[in-house]
Amino acid sequence: MTKRFFSNIVILCVVLLMSGILLFIAPNFVLGQLSDDFNGELLIQEYCEDSDGELDIELQKLQAGFIIYYYSECESLNENHCSFSQVMNDWCIDSNTLLEQVCDGNRLSNQEIVCGRGCNASACIS
Fold first, then answer.
1. 20 to 30 A Cα–Cα from 86, which one of 6, 47, 50, 70?
2. Angle at CA 30, nearest 5°, toward 19 and 8?
3. At 31, is the pLDDT very low, low, confident or very high (cuts 50, 70, 90)?
């Protein structure tokens, strides 16, 4: 087994764990970190966390990462039908282009990055 294989397994485990956290306890856990905008009578709440967000984009593109995104238009935290969570992985659009998932504040965004040496396993080849 290669080092990259084990790295991908670890990333997958982290993604699955974070998905479970968001689906079951995120509304209560991230309440203090949500961006709140009052829109009519609904409280719109957004939360975005980038697994490699502490790195600048030049370093982010060299490692596979993911975004955890939570969005709610609920009037209270007891409602389930008015919110969703999503995990978005970085991925290679083609052999030379990476779609890097990023947070723009608390909003989900992405950037297309042309990789000088090619794209493989959700990262630019270093």
1. 6
2. 30
3. very low
Give how many domains the chain has, as a whole number: 1
Token pair belonging to 29: 């856990």
User: Residue 65: which of 8, 4, 5, 3 has the closest Cα?
Assistant: 8
Q: How confident is the model at residue 115 (pLDDT cuts 50, 70, 90)?
A: very high
Read off the DSSP letter of residue 54.
Answer: T
Q: Under a CB-based contact definition with an 8 Å cutoff, are residues 115 and 95 in contact?
A: no
Cβ neighbors of 19 (< 8 A, separation 6 or more) are 68, 85, 87
Taking the C-alpha atoms of residue 97 and residue 33, their distance in angstroms, rounded to an integer, is: 33
Closest CA to 107 of 64, 56, 19, 44: 44
pLDDT in tens, 46-93: 889 998 877 777 888 888 888 888 888 877 656 667 888 889 999 999
